[in-house]
């Protein structure tokens, strides 16, 4: 008799030098049916990534040796894995910098392990753990670009794949589904959960700015992602099935 396929548990890498914090979060993730691995610094993180793959990385800013910002830049240059950054309470500049260099979300210390777990689940649903929702989506085309929701891939007019973070991809998908419609920052946050832990306006603006850097010919004079004064944003491209 054939055995049913084993359920693949999400694998989370926690890069945190405070062992008590890391152990507390790992324990909560295990209770939530996830696998957790702890790395105390960038060297241990690299070793873990060399030995296996992870579905999401929780990354502390203050680490011995190479700091979290540097590690985030390095990770984002080579992979699209969702990243949640842990920052010191009240350090807004840390949170903004984290989003600007490619983090998908951030949480300030001290934090609730269950809150972080909820954020992890939210990001995972929007990445690789929503196959039923992705299967009904068709690829879309705009201004020569192609967005494939099932594979979560974006290709430029030349056919080259462009790397987007989870938050950036989710934002672009929402815009493609609503071309010509003004979307408020609150609506964008509700659809994407981008930057859940911070001020709505600043978090969404940072992600939109990064998205413009990747899809606009001139990000300083955007033709696709328009800012609507006192409104939000509007996707000005014509979107059609690919």
UniProtKB/TrEMBL annotation:
CDD domains per the UniProt record, alphabetical: REC_OmpR, trans_reg_C
Keyword annotations from UniProtKB, A to Z: Activator, Cytoplasm, DNA-binding, Phosphoprotein, Transcription, Transcription regulation, Two-component regulatory system
Recorded superkingdom: Bacteria
DNA-binding region of this protein: 137-237
Gene Ontology molecular function terms on file: phosphorelay response regulator activity; transcription cis-regulatory region binding
Response regulatory domain sequence ranges: 11-124
BP-aspect Gene Ontology terms: regulation of DNA-templated transcription
OmpR/PhoB-type domain residues: 137-237
Cellular localization per UniProt: Cytoplasm
Modified residues (4-aspartylphosphate): 60
SUPFAM superfamilies linked: C-terminal effector domain of the bipartite response regulators (SSF46894), CheY-like (SSF52172)
InterPro entries per the UniProt record, alphabetical: CheY-like_superfamily, OmpR/PhoB-type_DNA-bd, Sig_transdc_resp-reg_C-effctor, Sig_transdc_resp-reg_receiver, WalR-like, WH-like_DNA-bd_sf
Cellular-component GO terms for this entry: cytosol; protein-DNA complex
PANTHER family listed in its UniProt record: DNA-BINDING DUAL TRANSCRIPTIONAL REGULATOR OMPR, REGULATOR OF RPOS
UniProt name for this protein: Regulatory protein VirG
Protein species of origin: Aureimonas pseudogalii
